[in-house]
Design brief:
Rossmann fold; two-stranded antiparallel sheet; 4 domains; single chain; alpha/beta; globular
Length: 477
């Protein structure tokens, strides 16, 4: 638990105004200075000092509004803007651009279908801003949803934002927690169809090993493959170049800088279902560029939750899970586009199986990158941080299938020799520890990866520190 100033809401033992804090766990406030002028936009909220931060924010900001959206084609690009507000006084705008759309594609587009897909993309984009205050009401002024649509959106929020609720200690299960209203004056769209060659496949590339395996495995099945890159950085561009795929579709998003400003001032923050957003965005791109299939890299381990909170399973990877894939496609067929399928060719593969396949694609070994901290180190030259559970996990599943010298070329060192990673190893394999909030494999397959790695190390007559600890803690046990 962290400490929060009850007036300026900065997470520190010393607040922006003075020395007093409000502890979220026991709601104990001490010696707060009377004046809080200039310490942040949340300011003083005159409520009981026992009320938690989220409750205070929900009271001050009772309604989130998805106000409007706009879109247009300009110079071969498709420009989208979304407008959101949180009553009484916060406003936000997101801009998204899909680049380099041929005029022939633009001429075939059905306007109502395009508008429907843009509107639905905004339903997921809005969660980036709603999470600031967790407002008890969402009003979708810009459009209308069927009963099924509201149910679908509610499920994305409750399951896709489970980690956010857990980390902010929000009871999202209580009755009346969230009210969703739509604009009855707006049209409810039904699914349309596209005319396209069924052998065309669009593949989103994130730069990691999983999407590379999908890309290479689908090459033999498709007449034409397109690559979809979202806010592409160096690893994605390298992978795309190595693949030699000709059509590369690029989308870029600019989030309102006010979001980060408010995060720094103590408003709520946390995980949002990014793969759900990417599903809607890629569906829009598939429609415009006439791809009837979108192949994601969602593996079997995405189905395993991290922990239970408020008697509900919390899964960091829920928007990559079989459940999300199923409900998304069910909704898509009825309300979006009937014949653009979203699927994962590696759905039934474990991370170990994927790693074994990936080990054969040596041309990508110095290009791929799966570390979430990589861009914090350097935006221009991202690299493995070597200090997180994801780095250790990827290293462990590749270890049984690659020579140690080749692994060191990828990562820069042998992570099994790093004693500081022992706590992460325990989180990845121990039933007593909660699974890290990262895109990592199941505990069962991670244990198998470490077991196989230990066998390999014994063959090499050199057992590194973490594998020795693994043997002590797991094998001998």
């Amino acid at each position: 638990m962290g400490d929060w100033c009850s007036r300026c809401y900065r997470r520190n033992s010393n607040c922006a105004a003075g020395i007093s804090v409000l502890r979220i766990d026991d709601s104990k406030e001490i010696n707060h200075p009377k004046s809080t002028e200039g310490v942040g936009e949340i300011g003083y909220l005159p409520v009981s000092k026992k009320m938690k931060k989220t409750t205070l924010l929900r009271k001050k900001y009772p309604e989130f509004v998805y106000e409007n959206y706009s879109y247009k084609f300009k110079n071969g690009n498709f420009l989208i803007s979304f407008y959101f507000s949180i009553k009484p006084d916060l406003k936000f705008k997101t801009d998204i651009v899909l680049k380099n759309i041929p005029q022939k594609k633009i001429e075939t587009i059905d306007e109502p279908t395009l508008e429907n897909l843009v509107f639905h993309l905004g339903l997921i984009e809005m969660l980036n801003y709603w999470k600031l205050t967790c407002s008890p009401k969402i009003f979708i002024e810009s459009g209308n949803l069927s009963t099924e649509g509201k149910r679908f959106l509610r499920k994305i929020i409750s399951k896709g934002m489970g980690q956010y609720f857990y980390e902010n200690k929000i009871d999202f299960t209580r009755r009346g927690f969230l009210k969703i209203e739509t604009n009855p004056q707006k049209r409810i769209y039904r699914a349309s169809k596209i005319e396209a060659d069924s052998r065309k496949i669009l593949i989103p590339i994130g730069g990691g090993k999983d999407s590379i395996v999908v890309l290479e495995s689908e090459k033999s099945k498709a007449k034409k493959i397109g690559i979809f890159l979202f806010n592409p950085k160096t690893p994605q561009r390298k992978v795309a170049k190595i693949s030699k795929i000709k059509e590369i579709i690029v989308a870029q998003r600019k989030i309102d800088p006010r979001l980060f400003e408010l995060n720094s001032k103590g408003y709520l923050n946390g995980h949002v279902p990014f793969s759900a957003f990417l599903s809607f965005l890629t569906l829009l791109a598939a429609y415009i560029f006439q791809y009837p299939k979108v192949a994601f890299a969602w593996e079997k381990s995405a189905n395993e939750p991290n922990l239970k909170y408020k008697k509900r399973w919390i899964n960091h990877q829920w928007s990559k899970s079989s459940e999300f894939e199923k409900i998304f496609n069910e909704y898509r067929k009825r309300f979006l586009v009937q014949n653009i399928s979203i699927y994962s060719p590696i759905r039934n593969l474990s991370d170990l199986e994927i790693a074994k396949i990936f080990s054969q694609f040596t041309q990508y070994h110095n290009a791929f990158l799966s570390c979430n901290n990589a861009y914090k180190i350097s935006a221009k030259r991202p690299k493995w941080c070597l200090k997180c559970p994801k780095c250790l996990f990827v290293f462990s599943v590749l270890y049984p299938f690659l020579e140690e010298k080749n692994l060191i070329k990828i990562f820069g060192k042998n992570l099994f020799e790093d004693r500081s990673l022992l706590p992460f190893m325990l989180k990845l394999i121990s039933k007593k520890e909660k699974k890290p909030f990262e895109c990592v494999g199941t505990k069962k397959e991670t244990i198998l990866a470490f077991s196989l790695a230990l066998k390999q190390a014994k063959k090499r007559n050199k057992i590194p520190f973490l594998l020795k600890k693994f043997e002590e803690l797991h094998i001998k046990k």
